[in-house]
Amino acid sequence: QAKGGRNGHFAFFDPTMDTRLHKDMVMENHLRRAAHLHEFQAYYQPLVEIDSGRLSGMEALARWHRDDGTTVPPDEFIPLAEKTGLILTIGEQVIRDACRQMCRWHADGFDHLGLSVNISSIQFQDPGLLDRIRALLDETTFPAHLLTVEITESAAMDNVGHTLSTLQSLRAMGIKIAIDDFGTGYSSLGYLKRFPVDLLKIDKSFVVDLPGDADASAIAQTIISMSRTLNIQVAAEGVETEEQYRFMKEHQCHKAQGFLFGRPMVAAAAGEFISRFRQMRT
Ligand code: C2E
Ligand code: MG
Ligand code: MG
Ligand code: MG
């Protein structure tokens, strides 16, 4: 808004915008410093195979441990990390951390466990992505066939030509592919059929209203039956109640993830979870 100044000059100045810009700049500096200090690490959330009740693996979810002792969740730093390109460094740190940790759990005898990692759209567009992942697998010795790369449905639909060739290259390396937050984007059946996809993750916004809500129930059932037609597995994210789990079991959803089984945990807690976990009942 333009204000007439007392001595005849105009200031084009929106105080709310200034604070935002300023906050972003401060935050960007903090992020840059944090990336330099390796303050990002992986938390681990279990993924359960519904049929067998077994633990199928862990999803690595980024957390920022600030030197003031606070832990910052991804929603608060990933948007800016994407805008500034810092997501490339941060993402690599999280994946490296997770691959190393997973190898320790494999060495402890849990060598069937898979690892899922999230790739944002900027990471996915990065021409160096395949080399980075190949180098990380070499460096950490984590087996490619136990790695799943999760990309959101909207990132996958951004540039379908690029998506197709990148997914094919990942697949050729033996890596599995999951479409995250499925149902929130606009993918057509045609693309899903062409993309080499192993798993669709039903977005938690559809799961939260189950089993009571008729629309949510219809959407979840449609995703499950469509994926069966396409020979793709399905996972439900955000499963918080026994009823939601039972719904997924009845409709033959393959995997489930959510607070009902476990929240994202630091490595030590996740390790205990893994060694205690036997089988999901019901
Ligand atoms: P996402 O990959 O879809 O992960 C699922 C999110 O849902 C996680 O939030 C998880 O904590 C939360 N969640 C899991 N179970 C439940 C549940 O039962 N109820 C509810 N209400 N929430 C549940 P989080 O950890 O805050 O991560 C948010 C998003 O940030 C992730 O969504 C992912 O898109 C992104 N992200 C996380 N880590 C990374 C990373 O290392 N790299 C990139 N590029 N993105 C990441
Ligand atoms: Mg995910
Ligand atoms: Mg998701
Ligand atoms: Mg999400």
The geometry reads as globular
Q: For the report, how would you describe the main beta sheet?
A: 8 strands, mixed, barrel
Distance between the termini: 60 Å
What is the percentage of strand-forming residues? 15-25%
Helix content: 40-55%
> What ligands can be seen in this structure?
ligand C2E, magnesium ion
Total number of helical segments? 12
Structural class: alpha/beta
- Widest beta sheet: strand line-up: 3-4-6-7-8-9-10-11
Q: What average pLDDT do the residues reach?
A: 92
List low-pLDDT spans.
Answer: 1-5
Rg, nearest Å? 21 Å
Secondary structure: number of strands: 11
How would you spell out the order of helices and strands? EEHEEEHHEHHEHHEHEHHEHEH
Question: TL;DR?
Answer:
It comes from Desulfofustis glycolicus DSM 9705. With 282 residues, the chain is an alpha/beta fold.
